[in-house]
Amino acid sequence: MPIHEKSLIRPENIKSHDELVIEGIDVSGHWSTFIQSRVVTDYNEELEEEISALPGGEYIHRCFQCGSCTNACTVNALNADFNPRYWIYLIRMGMEEELLRDKEIIWQCVSCNKCTYICPRDVAPEGVMKATSHWLELKGHTPKSHSTIFDEVFTDQVMETGMIEESRTIRGFFGRTKQSLTQGWLIEMVKRLMRNLPVEMLIKLGLATFLRPRTKNWGAARDAMKEYAQEQHALHRKALKLDQVTQSDDSNTANQETN
Amino acid sequence: MSENKEKYKNVAYYPGCALEGTGHAYNKSTKAIGKALDLGLEEVKNWNCCGAMEVKNVDPKLQTYLSSRVMSIASNEMKHDVVMAPCNGCYHNLKKAEYDLENDAASVEVVEQISKKAGHETYKAGSIETIHALDWIKKAVGEEELEKKIKGGLKGLKVANYYGCMYTRPRNIFPEKDQGGDSESTDKPHYMDDLLAVAGADNVDFPLKTACCGGAHTLSDSDTSTKLVLNILMAAEASGAEVIATECPTCHSGLEMHQIRAEKMFGKKTNVKIVYFTQLLGMALGLSKRKVGLQENISDSYALMKEKGIA
Fold it and tell me: Structure pTM?
């Protein structure tokens, strides 16, 4: 399947005039369309280096722009603007402002790994998508995506107890993203689940929400993991030169409250 | 061959978090077919979460540590050579940890450092073999022996076999696949097809075997997941399938959940039923619907199974 990518000429750069006369010649209307020249003045020469410093972005330098990732991409099939090849190009060229145009969708990578499977240069584009999403958030270009919030709620719970109890994760996620738990489709799902569920299973699931399942003697592992996470977080901030900017550190997952 | 089979008859069992919750029917049916086929499963003692995709997203090496702890207990403490994980996510993560610890010195260093502080033996690459529930039946029993044990069978039930993402991608963490012969294919996986065919299913030609269900964003970007699931459900129906057989609790609950969501939010109703392959295999072996937890699924397939004379 060929890749159909968008034109780099944007609607706002196309100029036509309802009434325009140049040197006595009437050039009104769209028969004579002008394209505003595009000048890039905002190269961020450190962009590739910064994204390489975050987990998943390590191999971005290997890319030779074959486009196999975009061609294989699950999300690209739903939204043509989701274009890993193009973003890798922009990052390597340092075209930060262009990249920021797509800042609201980069986090939507579903990690299906079709790109990483097909990539002839082992760039691991799935990792690059994660690194780029984290970069956008760390730099303050976007708030934390729902995906990042889910990852944090989940990771906090694993660090605390060693295990996941799903209803707690779901409640924590809906709470932190301020979403209602009484959405029609969720209620319908619970209703259909209850219809046939044997009583002993109901009791077991109900109990799990009160008696949290946990790994025994987990304290030392928890502390070691938190220590490592904090070290890594400090390293990432340093690589992005964020240390001098702010003291308040709300993105440190290890410091997040647990539910 | 038979000697090789012995290796897989008694294995360490790593159910993982999902099988204690939404995937309970998968847990129940996996244990039930193990019993019916005289296979031994010893649950990994005091296991922890494999790290799933979420911890990997926060920091890949933390996920490597979490998975390595499970393998360390199974090999160092319980002296097993093989650990079986029915969940695609757990299976994938144990495989990924194995690959990283074999090939990446930085991962080895982090895992050593955390394991030491946590007070347990560090997992050494190559100490244990991680397999999926599909490998388990295939290697410990095999089609020939399985065929002899089928009671009743699946009576030509039309099945679309759905493998998902984590069972085959990326290729590098599955060095045993794509080796020709009886090995699994990462491009066109066939282990589930093979086993269910022996059990009497009529496998349909299903093009989306390894498509993504959007499980990673099932709650954080639900519309995307619903669209991806709807593709899978509609393709299965167009292929003539009555049920979709699953091998992963995240895929399974994602398909069930977004089947309802597609109906409620997009007005797209699909009728194909969603069943764990272990439930189908269990019923083909003559186990009751209760033994395989058929009615613990949200997708209600009992009427269909009864009509077909399977349950």
Answer: 0.92
